[in-house]
Amino acid sequence: MDILVFQHLDVEHPGIFRDFWREAGHRTRIVALNEGEAIPDLADFDVLAVMGGPMDVWETDLHDWLRPEMAAIRTWVRDLGRPYLGICLGNQLLAEALGGKTGRMAAPEVGMTRSALNPQGQADALFEGFAPELDVFQWHGAEVQSLPEDGVILAGNAACPVQAMRVGQNAWGLQFHVEMTPSTVAEWGAVPEYAASLERALGAERAAGLEGELARHLPRFNAMARQINDNFFRAIAG
Predict the structure, then answer these.
(1) 148: which DSSP letter?
(2) Which helix (H) or strand (E) element contains residue 49?
(3) Which H or E element spans position 142?
(4) Each residue's pLDDT tens digit in the chain (238 positions)?
(5) φ, ψ at 38 (rounded to 5°)
(6) Contacts with 150 (C-beta within 8 Å, 6 or more apart), sequence order
(7) Within 10 A of 177 (CB to CB), how many other CB atoms are there?
(8) Strand, helix or coil at 7?
(9) How far are the Cα atoms of 94, 104, 161, 168, 169 from residue 147, in angstroms, in the given order?
(10) Domains and their CATH numbers in the chain
(11) 88 is catalytic
């Protein structure tokens, strides 16, 4: 398949998904929107993956590419009905582009947390084979606060009720991260906005140990990413 990736920061790339896609023979086109790259003709692609970033969906005056990006997402999901996978900001953009609402959280959610699949999530193709309780990795200060039309919550927790959602039949968004690699914490921690939310959420001592904490759990997160990836491609092939 031909996968189009909307990227908002060079260190927030598809991560381990790149390995899975390469192994499967998929072709990937990354569009660095924050660097001024234009959105190509959507007709040339089979899957749209939208990654994270330190900006917020409402910061359209600061990042003028957010408006055309959301227009492209709206066309992709609503008009073309093609498969979509959004992570973190990509989850929020999916909601906002299709009539939902995103807002700032009371406090950022960073590091290892737990989310729970609801009955809809347990029955959803994306989470086939998962236990109801998910240990996940977070790094966000905004959340989906109201769903778009045809949106269904699949997972949540007390800090952020929309941890995963599906819109229609072929579009999924994950608020948590599964794409991490060994360099993720060091790369993201060098981004000023992320560094601030990290220390605010965890405190200086635990923030300093997050890289080692993630390293201990990384094999399990990589297995989770593999399962989500495989489930996604099975679901859209059916």
Answers:
(1) P
(2) strand 47-50
(3) strand 133-146
(4) 999 999 999 999 999 999 999 999 999 999 999 999 999 999 999 999 999 999 999 999 999 999 999 999 999 999 999 999 999 999 999 999 999 999 999 999 998 999 999 999 999 999 999 999 999 999 999 999 999 999 999 999 999 999 999 999 999 999 999 999 999 988 988 888 888 888 888 888 888 888 898 899 999 999 999 999 999 999 999 7
(5) -80, 150
(6) 98, 167, 168
(7) 22
(8) strand
(9) 10, 15, 11, 12, 15
(10) 2-237 (3.40.50.880)
(11) yes
Q: Per the structure block, which two tokens stand in for 195?
A: 């560094």
Q: Helix (H, G, I), strand (E, B), or coil: what is residue 63?
A: coil
CB 149 within 8 A of CB 98: yes
Strand partners, 223: none
Which structure tokens are listed for 68? 């055309």
What backbone torsions phi and psi does residue 169 show, to the nearest 5 degrees?
A: -105, -20
CB 66 within 8 A of CB 55: yes
Query: 37 catalytic, yes or no?
Result: no
Give the active site residue among 88, 96, 140, 160: 88
Q: Give Cβ neighbours of residue 21 (< 8 Å, ≥ 6 apart).
A: 3, 14, 28
- The residue written with tokens 């066309």 in the block is 75
The SS3 assignment for 22 reads helix
Q: Are 144 and 91 in contact (CB under 8 A)?
A: yes
Task: Identify which of 132, 151, 25, 23 has the alpha carbon closest to the alpha carbon of residue 86.
Answer: 151
- Taking each helix axis from N to C end, the angle separating 17-24 and 210-237, rounded to the nearest 10 degrees, works out to 40
Specify whether the CB–CB gap between 150 and 171 falls below 8 A. no
179 annotated active-site: yes
